[in-house]
């Protein structure tokens, strides 16, 4: 007898798969150029971090941009570390990492390209698509948790067999 409206296990696995896809995209972003054309178009995200730490950006990007650029690859590693864990604590941690990572991914694309969407490179696209995948994965996982907390639903099979 079914007592709760629960999402099928495939919804849970789909949510986690989208979260891991986001992690893969955010990690790959570190090895790709954030800018498609113009200044920094030949520099990967990690190159920009090295230039910032060496002080070679010369005011072209804000000081301390390396913290912003390293947030999504670090978030990717945390998401992969949290992937096998279930439960409420891991869910909250995963949600916090997704929200922070998705927000920072959008900020990275805006700051590095100067808001010129025509200059978005493969690294920025990975960050943005990863943000979308992470949010979708979070929504699927949260949807499943919300459905699990609803009131029990009477079974229609019991009504048919009782002769009513």
UniProtKB/TrEMBL annotation:
<keyword id="KW-0472">Membrane</keyword>
<protein>
    <submittedName>
        <fullName>Uncharacterized protein</fullName>
    </submittedName>
</protein>
<feature type="transmembrane region" description="Helical">
    <location>
        <begin position="92"/>
        <end position="114"/>
    </location>
</feature>
<keyword id="KW-1133">Transmembrane helix</keyword>
<feature type="transmembrane region" description="Helical">
    <location>
        <begin position="65"/>
        <end position="85"/>
    </location>
</feature>
<keyword id="KW-0812">Transmembrane</keyword>
<feature type="transmembrane region" description="Helical">
    <location>
        <begin position="120"/>
        <end position="142"/>
    </location>
</feature>
């Amino acid at each position: 007898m079914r007592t709760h409206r629960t999402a099928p296990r495939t919804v849970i696995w789909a949510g986690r798969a989208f979260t891991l896809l986001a992690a893969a995209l955010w990690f790959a972003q570190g090895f790709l150029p954030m800018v498609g054309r113009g200044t920094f178009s030949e520099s990967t995200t990690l190159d920009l971090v090295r230039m910032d730490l060496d002080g070679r950006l010369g005011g072209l990007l804000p000081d301390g941009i390396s913290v912003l650029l390293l947030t999504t690859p670090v978030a990717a590693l945390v998401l992969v570390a949290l992937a096998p864990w279930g439960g409420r604590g891991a869910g909250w941690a995963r949600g916090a990492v997704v929200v922070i990572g998705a927000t920072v991914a959008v900020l990275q694309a805006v700051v590095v390209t100067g808001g010129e969407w025509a200059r978005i490179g493969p690294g920025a696209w990975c960050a943005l698509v990863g943000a979308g995948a992470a949010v979708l994965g979070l929504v699927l996982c949260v949807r499943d948790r919300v459905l699990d907390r609803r009131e029990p639903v009477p079974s229609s099979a019991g009504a048919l067999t009782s002769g009513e």
